[in-house]
Predict the structure.
Amino acid sequence: MRNPQLNAAGDLTHLLTLEGLPAEIILRVLDTAVPFASIAEREVKKVPLLRGRSVFNLFFENSTRTRTTFEIAAKRLSADVINLNIGVSSTSKGETLLDTVDNLVAMNADMFVVRHSQSGAPHLIAAHLNRMGRTHVHVVNAGDGRHAHPTQGLLDLFTIRHYKKDFRELTVAIVGDVLHSRVARSLIHGLTTLGTPEVRVIGPKTLIPSAVQSLGVHVHHDMREGLAGCDVVVMLRLQSERMRGALLPSTGEYFKYYGLTGEKLALAKPDAIVMHPGPMNRGVEIESAVADGERSVILPQVTFGIAVRMAVMSILAGA
Amino acid sequence: MKIEIQHGRIVDPRHGVDRVGSLCIADGQIAAVGAPPPGWRADRSIDARGFVVCPGLIDLSARLREPGFEYKATLESEMQAAIAGGVTSLACPPDTDPPLDVPGLVQMLKHRARSLNQAHVYPIGALTRALEGVELTEMGELAAAGCVAFSQAEAPIIDTGVLLRAMQYGATFGHRVWLRPQDAHLGKGGVAHEGEVATRLGLPPIPAVAETIALASILALAHTTGVQVHICRLSTAEGVDMVRTAKRQGLAVTCDVAVHHLHLCDVDIGWFDTQCRLIPPLRGTRDRAALRAGLADGTIDLVCSDHAPVDDDSKQVPFAEAEPGATGLELLLPLTLKWAQEDGIALPEALARITSRPAAVLGIDAGHLAIGAAADVCVFDPHLHWRVEPAALKSQGKNTPFVGLELGGKVRATIVAGHVVHES
């Protein structure tokens, strides 16, 4: 089966997941993002690479932050950006997901940035466009269910490379709700593809998927043990709804076992960096002193996120 | 009308017949097997040279979608699919809308099916009203109306007390109870087997214990109540082991597997292929191997198509939102033959699993070719390979994971009660 995000020549036509993406493509995105990161520091922050192109932000699930970063990225590339917050109720009006897509294609959309609560929704759209022969229309997955969040994965990789250089010498720990996390899945695929020798996931058994070892990671339930000797610590957001459904007893107990404190961070390497995809729950998964501390690269992640999304969009558009 | 099917390989698993010769049909019954009776003159002969002549297939799970889901399929379309697949008797689960929980609905379905004059339809009545798992249905009235067994379809009974009493009540009158083992809580909201694929794709999982916990309850209650239980759609290796042990201990339990699960596993979901959204979910390769072995050694008694026609719109959505099910009536025979060929199972043994054994579970006099038996016959070409093309399927449901696959075994003629109802 051909990777649905590559065309017959092996070029990236959609960005749906980091799984199965060749290392060269991932590195090309990271390399392309480097000059874009410096554009942000210029007085005029625009390049004309996507002038005249229409980028549709198709958000079936609310997200101000991700949508905003995609919007900024597209605008810095001089694209026209149309934001559609469709919400989950659209299907109740009788229009299917693919009806919506067909209508927007008829409005000459060039790119869809899709966020959806269901795993696989961007694949469905991409497969539909491919089947209809609309190969000039590109899909960027901005997060689908628990499955993937590839631009977040790429910006995490960009951040790690910025501070740590060589992926092949790193130990990375991902801490928290891996079960529900598309961020964790994408980062794991990216790290293993780039040859990171040790990727660890840390969390209680209720929040670690059963077959996660098959993704090439080591599982730790004891956070202190899992953090020992790490170069990178990635904290995941804990949704408050996890207290319902008997996954966890309380945020307090969660913080006790899996919250990142200065004392626990001291078990990692002295130059270890701390990352978080945001938005953070201070005092739940991370204490403020660490979040705002000198090892935290959480705000640079946000800045790099725009550059990485510019890189993805410009590569997809063939610019 | 006298029909002679000539020169075919006659296979009747129940009576151990496997010979080349003529099958003679007169007045809707089997008149002779092997050589025609003295003075025989057929009104019509069918040349079955190189073909297999066997009892019409019996499918224990075929959703006809009536009443209530006529936009997915109708009795007309699905009966055409049945006879095109060589299926002459089928049992339909009660998960229609409304469910088959009152005699009037059952009578209507039987009447509609009879008027089409194709395959025989055996409705499965609802075990509880509206399949809600709270109150018992009038099983006696439903049986009188034509229900051959009682089930909950895909709605598990949450209250084990209700399950116990339903089985006790059923046992009182000798009713058969068919249950698919599925815990109501474990795997709730799940859409794929808990394992590597569900983890990778971020699909809500259904663990194997969702099946085995429910199976343990059902087997224990069957032992306590003495009710005749049939386990539907076994899907896990552990489940096969549990049924094997129960049978060894003397429990009168039978069980089936859906034909999809003999050939596919969760890996076939690929990149969210909604054709592989099935209930129970496609499980791991180890489970698939156990199901195939269990079918071979008799732990699993039979194969059913688990036919569930689904409209295209319901599959053109994200995986978890897709309606589960696949069309299967026309694929039951070739997919069973494929299993037999791959695992070195003799043809009569394979055919027993789609003829005589389902007949025994249904408790009907069918699925064999004894003289005097109703002439329900399937004639098929075991060597002809054909490609599964949605447009060529008679079923209104065109969705199946086997689209594009080459399968061996093509039905040439289907005879129901002595009438040739399908030829190709």
Remarks:
- The first helix of chain A runs from residue 23 to 39.
- The mean pLDDT of chain A is 94.
- The two ends of chain A are 28 Å apart (CA to CA).
